[in-house]
Write a structure and sequence with these properties.
The protein has 732 residues and is mostly beta strands. The protein is built from five helices and 36 strands.
Length: 732
């Protein structure tokens, strides 16, 4: 396929899975595949009058109270902040302790999600954190998670487990982020529409959902109650910076049904983004002069991406006496065309996977027991091609240039290989409920991750670089929880975790060779953690966690010299991460307040590059002090929300010679109350307008850092002040 100056959307071969996904998405509202949603949680922030005890399933158990769990878990307070933009996961994860979301203000780059600093190095996508949607993995078998296709308009809440994730989920040192979908309406038909405009970007969303009862009659026992939800979202605009145009559409649907006692759910997503321009990072001088500036080389080389993504998941859940069995099958495709300054990258991806796990409770023993076990399997196949980027080559160029077709962007082939990654893992856990509300739990997981490259670009001067690598890990965990009061607990845990390099990290070798990097090792983490959480009088919730994590062979990114934008990776010998995380949530009749503070002292213990030692230096990309907060006031049919994010300085390179300055940023939203009783209604339609001012004081700052960047382009700017308008219409 030849790229021209207009950059046509992806047109490589289709796939059966993609067509089946599209059919599933379009058919999802059908009453024959819709059902009642199982309520597996009680939101801790869904009301302004009180905070209820959250019950979560991210633990791979039946819904549990956090006061019984031996690790830090937080549900993001989404509903306490009405009328959010929902254009980035940073909108959803405000005031979650230990979590830093770096919105890169670049439509070609996903926001970074860093939990306890794991993930802060990510060049693209999410790393070091296991991302789920309703319990189904969005993360790939190598640990990478692209989230650009995730429809945030359909998210109800986000559950976050900090640390201690590998014993249950594998290949994640930072923790688990479980995105929970919005439940369909209990009415026969409900509709809502949202329109958002601000900062050069427009966004529109339309949703419909409903409940159907008695589809096949009471006597059959089939489909007694059915639920469905369908959502369409379109985002487009020139963006807040030069060279940041964006155009994307997404369709998401879910349908739920109970068939003879088995709860079923079908989900499907179709995402198409034909243009997402890569505006790039800035130097310190450019950031100070104008954060709207682009990287001029990215414009010259026309750096951008086009993506087509499909995702399909089928989930089943059944109660078996005192236990529960859950299973899932999922698959997806992704086609990526990604012109970069150093090359043009094209990827055709297929992913399939599944899981089966169960949990049982044995209450009849002197000390009640809980058992759990499960297996997960996932396979990824990438067809990857790299071509010479010829965007700068003019038709008048002499034949001696490396691009064989001057005037076309796609030049000579530089890489043609198939990349595969497969993961198989199994776990078992047991929990003993001792007297005086003492819970002792242990878990053990084994994972095997296989990588393979088949080199298809073999010439007289380019040898066969095919190769295979198999990485294995055993991840144990021991935890103790004392439920001192019904709504107050103290806990501690000892755990290990591992994180493999991704396929991209293994194949992006500094030398430019194809195949797999044989010297790059997975990083392994040992963590000790203690904490407490309490709910005081249904008005105040407090959380505190202290931890120390020692990491062997920490994966460190760096830019390859003289190849702008091209990243390679190496291992540091040992790092130590010490941290404290605290959060406070308060709710009264008309006021919601939430705050979080994270202290992170992360240091290299052993790390040398050549003759230079970085021992004692701060791990780059992670500030020592980071806090967030919000306050929402409601009254007389209106609301006002004030949000704040503050950060201390953070190193941008291993030597600590470049620093991203500290900052504080404020956002303000004013609008009609989200309460149905107080929203104005015209013809049965509730109107909820909102005016937002983001970056209220127009602070110039770097919202994220490019670690160890070349050309001094370390800084990805936060958005300048912008005014946005949101209109939501709802009919129940």
């Amino acid at each position: 396929m030849t790229f021209n100056q207009t950059f046509q959307p992806i047109g490589r071969r289709g796939s059966l899975l993609r067509r089946l996904t599209l059919c599933a998405v379009l058919a999802a509202p059908s009453p024959l595949i819709a059902q009642v949603a199982r309520q597996d949680s009680v939101a801790d922030d869904s009301t302004a009058r009180r905070l209820n005890t959250v019950r979560v399933s991210v633990t791979r158990d039946a819904a549990r109270s956090p006061f019984e769990l031996p690790f830090a878990l937080t549900t993001a307070p989404i509903s306490a902040r009405p009328a959010q933009r929902r254009t980035s996961v940073s909108d959803l994860l405000l005031a979650v302790p230990g979590v830093q979301v770096q919105d890169r203000s670049n439509p070609s780059q996903d926001a970074r999600i860093a939990v306890r600093g794991f993930g802060a190095r990510s060049a693209f996508g999410v790393r070091g954190v296991r991302v789920l949607r309703d319990g189904v993995p969005l993360s790939l078998p190598d640990g990478q998670t692209p989230i650009d296709w995730l429809d945030l308009e359909t998210v109800d809440r986000v559950d976050v487990v900090r640390g201690t994730a590998a014993a249950l989920y594998g290949n994640a040192a930072g923790g688990v982020v479980d995105v929970r979908s919005r439940a369909p309406s209990r009415a026969p038909l409900a509709m809502q529409a949202r329109w958002w405009n601000g900062g050069g970007v427009q966004r529109a969303n339309v949703q419909a959902s409903g409940t159907l009862r008695g589809v096949l009659g009471d006597s059959s026992g089939l489909l007694q109650e059915s639920q469905w939800l369908a959502s369409f979202t379109r985002t487009a605009g020139d963006g807040p910076r030069a060279w940041s145009r964006f155009d994307a559409s997404s369709v998401f649907a879910r349908a739920l049904s109970t068939v003879r006692g088995t709860r079923l759910e079908l989900q499907g997503t179709v995402y198409d983004a034909p243009r997402a321009e890569n505006t790039g990072a800035l130097t310190a001088a450019e950031l100070a002069r104008d954060p709207r500036l682009p990287d001029s080389l990215n414009i010259t080389r026309r750096s951008r991406k086009a993506v087509q993504q499909t995702q399909l998941a089928l989930m089943a859940e059944r109660d078996l006496g005192s236990g529960q069995l859950r299973a899932s099958l999922f698959g997806g495709t992704r086609m990526l065309d990604n012109p970069l300054p150093f090359a043009m990258v094209a990827v055709d991806r297929n992913v399939v996977g599944g899981s089966l796990h169960g949990s049982w409770r044995v209450p009849s023993t002197p000390w009640p027991l809980r058992f759990g076990a499960g297996v997960d399997a996932q396979r990824l196949v990438d067809e990857r091609y790299n071509y010479e980027n010829c965007a700068e080559v003019l038709p008048s160029a002499p034949p001696s240039v490396r691009c064989p077709a001057p005037g076309n962007e796609r030049g000579a082939t530089r890489l043609d290989q198939q990349e595969r990654a497969a993961n198989v893992g199994g776990y078992a856990r047991i929990e003993v409920e001792a007297p005086r509300q003492l819970f002792v739990s242990t878990a053990l997981r084994f994972d095997q991750v296989q990588f393979a490259v088949r080199d298809r670009f073999i010439t007289s001067t380019n040898a066969d670089d095919s190769g295979d690598r198999t990485l294995r890990a055993v991840s144990p965990m021991l935890g103790v929880t004392w439920r001192a009061r019904p709504r107050w607990s103290l806990y501690g845990n000892l755990s290990t975790a591992f994180e493999t390099p991704t396929v991209t990290e293994l194949t992006n070798q500094e030398t430019g060779a194809a195949g797999l990097n044989a010297t790059l090792e997975p990083q392994r983490t040992r963590t000790v953690e203690v904490g407490t959480q309490a709910l005081l009088g249904q008005r105040v919730r407090a959380d505190l966690a202290l931890f120390e994590a020692v990491v062997q062979d920490e994966l460190v990114p760096f830019d390859v010299p003289n190849q702008p934008g091209r990243r390679a990776f190496r291992n540091a010998g040992q790092t130590t991460r010490r941290g404290a995380e605290t959060a406070l949530r308060m709710a009264w009749a008309n006021v919601d307040v939430g705050t979080s503070y994270t202290w992170s002292r992360f240091r290299f213990d052993r790390y040398s590059v050549g003759n230079t030692s970085y021992a004692g230096q701060a791990i780059p990309g992670v500030p020592e002090h980071y806090g967030q907060g919000f306050v929402t006031a409601r009254g007389r049919g209106a609301f006002a929300t004030l949000e704040w994010t503050g950060s201390s300085a953070a190193a941008a390179n291993d030597a600590g010679t470049v620093q991203g300055a500290g900052f504080s940023v404020w956002n303000l939203r004013l609008g009609a109350s989200a309460s149905r009783a107080m929203a104005s209604r015209i013809g049965g339609v509730a109107l909820e307008p909102t005016l937002s001012v983001e970056n209220l004081f127009d602070r110039r700052y770097a919202s994220s850092l490019v670690i160890n960047a070349t050309r001094n382009r370390f800084f990805e700017p936060g958005l300048p002040r912008r005014i946005a308008f949101v209109m939501q219409l709802r009919r129940d």
